[in-house]
Amino acid sequence: MRCIVSGMLVWERPEPPNRPVPAPLNRERIVRAAIRLADADGLEAVSLRKVAAVLGVGPMRLYSYIASKEELLDLMVDAVHAEIQPVGDGWREVLRSLAETTRQAAHEHEWLADLLGGRPQLGPHALAKGEIVVAALDGVDVDAVMPVVIAVDAYVIGAVRREIAERRAERATGMDEKRWQATLGPYLERTFATGRFPALATVVRDAAHLDADHTFRIGLDFLLDGIEARISR
Amino acid sequence: MRCIVSGMLVWERPEPPNRPVPAPLNRERIVRAAIRLADADGLEAVSLRKVAAVLGVGPMRLYSYIASKEELLDLMVDAVHAEIQPVGDGWREVLRSLAETTRQAAHEHEWLADLLGGRPQLGPHALAKGEIVVAALDGVDVDAVMPVVIAVDAYVIGAVRREIAERRAERATGMDEKRWQATLGPYLERTFATGRFPALATVVRDAAHLDADHTFRIGLDFLLDGIEARISR
DNA sequence: GCATCGGCCGATACAGTGTATCGATCAGTA
DNA sequence: TACTGATCGATACACTGTATCGGCCGATGC
After folding, report:
1. What is the pTM of this model?
2. Tens digit of each residue's pLDDT (9 = 90 or more) over A113-142
3. Fewer C-beta within 10 Å: chain B N or C terminus?
4. Nearest Cβ partner of B154 from A146, A162, A187?
């Protein structure tokens, strides 16, 4: 009669709480949960405890799949790289597509801006993206390929970070552009009024203000023009 | 006789511990302490407790001078901007100088790479730097000035982050380049051996490997060439 | 079928973080 | 001299990433 435990018959013992199969875990599931958290509340909302909680699991359970939080972040970035598929005819179109799709991914996952360029990207999806880009450059002198790709990558990383940082600052001062200008405007106004930054003041006041899309594209055009000039030489 | 405390005469009471003047504090002192910590052990070594400890002060004391840790980081970045003084004749030389000196600052303060582009830079030293740059562009169409400066800034941010990230990864695998290639090499070797990245594999194997200085300068030249072509049009 | 052993899993613990709170302390005033 | 108001910083809190190690569970030997 080894079925009786602690003196209670089955009928009296309550069923164990409804853990609907102990959460079959894998990296993909973990990474997806982390990305959901980051999309919703930013990167600082991603803690191993919260990720584990979402998955109905203890925090230490995750360490069977990753060695550290940094590795989780690497996996998140690589997962987003899977969404970045540059397309186009010719190297210029492909590089432009690379830049635009990366920027778009950062718009969908703002936390990407915090991670871009922070660690070398050697995951399978990042490499696959690199393969597409390099393959599109096959007409180019082999020694020029890496410098070109690296330069475009650098521009995209910096431009996206700038843009997202600005967007966040705007949002932090009250969600709409009116309040933003009502907070930053006066600060710059007062600062420029000191007369210490005359050239800057002139440009900020007199020049046309481009929106984020145009600013990004103009810089990208500068770079692609320069590349084209040197490549076809 | 109000000089006697807790029943002990002065002769019995020990002197208070030797606090050599309660640390006259100001933002500059705080920021310098934080920068020293970051230079020595990286950004994650900068905690309000440690900064306060270095200054011989309780952690909460710092909140008289800053509202949050983020503000401290902003102050650190602006302090480094004071070291960045672009010089040169003509807009192209000044922009190149801007890029090179920024990169150099990031080499002296690697933590800068973690912060660059992370938040808008509106501190006095950042604005002073901007003033110098914009002033050097006074021959240029006023509507083109900001896009040009922003593009160069974006490239520098991304390139520096890439470079520092790579340098750290190398250092993490054992300090010298031999071990780095002994760790990463085999990984890439194995990955390329799968045949999934033929174009990438070809370029990595066949192309000349540029050092960091050349890589940075080539990308910068691309960009400046492109700018020059459009500006003088 | 049973006892023993090995390995793994995950609860607990630890050392640290940024910052809110609020009681003690001290300067200035009536 | 007594009171009041502001100021300062010790304490406390909620949370972090991760090392540790006790207990459990499955496989193995008899």
Report:
1. 0.89
2. 999 999 999 999 999 999 999 999 998 999
3. N
4. A162
